Amino acid sequence: MLREVIPLFGVLTGIVVPLAVFFWLYHEGKGKREAVIEIAKHLDDPSKVEELLGLFDERKKEPIDYRRGGVITLFVGVGIYLLGAVSFGSFFEGIGLLVGAIGVGTMIAGYLYPNTSEELTHAVEEFEKP
Fold first, then answer.
1. What is the DSSP track for the chain?
2. Which range of residues forms the domain containing residue 80?
């Protein structure tokens, strides 16, 4: 009996977890949306409404730092490699090397393509020097 139920639980988990996350995020944002609507009803100035929406905007204003992401990915790869070397075997060593190589490539991309305004200004000034 138990052997027949375990695969069913596995399939249901793959369906239930994404649905639960969707409903959780929906209900988490619902209060924010209702608050913005109530406040916007009482504001007469459209610029204040735009400022209010800017406060609730959760997106990051900063550009992506590929160097930081590359270092993190590199060390995740090193950890997977060591896990394979110690206990799981050559398959995990190969996966660790692949993830580490992706991290090194991401770090290199971060150095080749500056992303902060100071780095871009410095790069333009260096290019314009005679």
1. -HHHHHHHHHHHHHHHHHHHHHHHHHHHHHHHHHHHHHHHHH---HHHHHHHHHHH--S--SPP-HHHHHHHHHHHHHHHHHHIIIII-HHHHHHHHHHHHHHHHHHHHHHHS--SHHHHHHHHHHHH--
2. 66-128
